[in-house]
């Protein structure tokens, strides 16, 4: 069995990881580290786990664990790893922004399986992609693969309240969020850096802008993204490019059906639909921000790193009604 540990166990992504790993046939959840909740049952925070596990939060780490998932706030993963040592065999999956950008300062591989599966299989350290970055990058990667992403891409995407984490702020209180809708960080969202990095990996000459407007939705979870750009060929050719690119993808699918969030929430899927309007190709991309956008993708990466079947432990079903 793979001995797994979670660092930063009280947040939304940690909760999803706990649920997945408790039911993963090849994993034993060894410990869940939390400086704010030591000694308390996991179910005191993640209350759906009542009756599911007797594990308690701890402020001690097992440095010999086979895999560590870092579910810390952005900027804290680097600090934690500098202050805590793990064995040479320990693999690490970081869910923050700390190691997503390529750098000579670290050996982390960007963990988007549809782009880097072969590298992930050989990696010891993974920088798990951001949620918006996953939805948007997957929507336009096939165009970059074929070196036809020449014009600006216009993206409008909406995320649920869980995308902001558990810490309360002015824009996460129920009274503000309910029956409300707003844009934020227009053209400046931090995920743009990793999107650009991935596109250049397949199309080195890509320079056109990704004009991204992120929005806050008044629902709990999910991302609904629409992206459009110039595309000279017909819709049939576009579908062919996308189907070929995602032919062996475990969780990314192209469909002709109209898309909405209930098709993907509580699953590790990313679904895409292509439409052609004049000389514009419109790509709709939907997924669960906490699963394919965070914890589900982290386990998908773990499976690849340990030579397991990619879908193992991730047979999650949408709650359609």
TrEMBL record:
Recorded metabolic or biological pathway in which this protein acts: Amino-acid biosynthesis; L-arginine biosynthesis; N(2)-acetyl-L-ornithine from L-glutamate: step 3/4
Keywords for the protein's UniProt record, in alphabetical order: Amino-acid biosynthesis, Arginine biosynthesis, Cytoplasm, NADP, Oxidoreductase
Source domain of life: Bacteria
Annotated EC: 1.2.1.38
Domain Semialdehyde dehydrogenase NAD-binding: 3-123
Subcellular location, record wording: Cytoplasm
Any single biological process term in GO: L-arginine biosynthetic process
Reactions catalysed: N-acetyl-L-glutamate 5-semialdehyde + phosphate + NADP(+) = N-acetyl-L-glutamyl 5-phosphate + NADPH + H(+)
Primary site of residence: cytoplasm
UniProt GO molecular function: N-acetyl-gamma-glutamyl-phosphate reductase activity; NAD binding; NADP+ binding
EC class: oxidoreductase
Active site per UniProt: 131
Any GO CC annotation of this UniProt entry: cytoplasm
InterPro entries recorded: AGPR (IPR050085), AGPR_AS (IPR023013), AGPR_dimerisation_dom (IPR058924), AGPR_type-1 (IPR000706), NAD(P)-bd_dom_sf (IPR036291), Semialdehyde_DH_NAD-bd (IPR000534)
PANTHER family: N-ACETYL-GAMMA-GLUTAMYL-PHOSPHATE REDUCTASE, CHLOROPLASTIC-RELATED, N-ACETYL-GAMMA-GLUTAMYL-PHOSPHATE REDUCTASE, CHLOROPLASTIC-RELATED-RELATED
HAMAP family documented for this protein: ArgC_type1
Family statement drawn from the similarity comment of this UniProt entry: Belongs to the NAGSA dehydrogenase family. Type 1 subfamily.
Protein role: Catalyzes the NADPH-dependent reduction of N-acetyl-5-glutamyl phosphate to yield N-acetyl-L-glutamate 5-semialdehyde.
Entry protein name: N-acetyl-gamma-glutamyl-phosphate reductase
